[in-house]
Amino acid sequence: MLATGHAEHEPVRVAGRMAGYQAGYLAALTTMMALRAAELRGSGEHVDVSMLEALTHNIDARLTQLQAYQYSGRIGTRSTPGALLAMGLFSCADAAPGIGGALAFMLDLRYRDRTGRGLLIELATVENMVPMLGEFLMDYTLNGRQWEHMGNEHWWLAPHNIDRCQHDNMWVTIVARNDEEFRRLCAVMLRPELANDPRFVDNASRYAHRRALDAIIGAWTANADARWLMHRLQREGIPVGVVNNEPGILDDPQHRAREFFQAIEHPSTGRQLHPRRAWCASKTPWRPMRHPPRLDEDNAYVYRELLGFSDKEYRRFEELGHIGLDYDPSVP
Length: 332
Prior knowledge:
By secondary structure, this protein is of the alpha+beta class. It is built from 14 helices and 9 strands. Strand 5 and strand 6 form a beta hairpin. Helix 1 packs parallel to helix 4.
């Protein structure tokens, strides 16, 4: 839980456990925003950041985001058929609370402008994952249908999957959205007879026999270069893309043409490539980014200049362990 009282009288109080470093950063950012709003508006804020506290009170905080991914049901619907309900190191549960928190804070300011009163903001991880499962929840509510282990499949389209290619750890995604696209796919595969196969004659039939269709397409892609497949099928108007690994992302011609990656010098790690914005605006020039901040690098600027705390208050925060160069002893 994270709570702030009046900015002029009570320092920030932090208790409980944050769910991963993303949540800690979000909590700190939200706190600074709340304190700044209190300073400008003359009233306090109370911000509640609850990351599955009831479920994870005695669990390592760094696991919480992955557990949220599981508790929400996302893994149950999107895991690969036959796979264990496990999760790797990536989880979009990190992003969901950030989006929800930013929106909640803006709505809080709007509410205060209209009423003169503040709001309690509760930032819950699992609940922020629910909008990502809207179709599944509505289908279960209205039709009683429960989706499980879809992997990369679609609700009704087939083919719609990821297939292994010729070289090690290279894959492509291939989708046929209608009968015409499927016929063009069959022609490129040099298997035109598949378009007239009763199992694949229309989308409903293809979806019913999608396992057999995936096996046929996978046998074809296994002997072809991933990028050749992508360019060849794209020329036919068929949705297809390479599943890039890290070297492939850095060497991708589209990324190079758009100058998506920018080299930034870091005091500790040297010159590294970092992604820029995902979009380019014609009348908004791109300003070079500074290096990712080091631990404690901007504390003095944020607390003293932006938030206006005195040197005495700043030292007090250091003594309490709110800021500093070292992690809390509970972090291994």
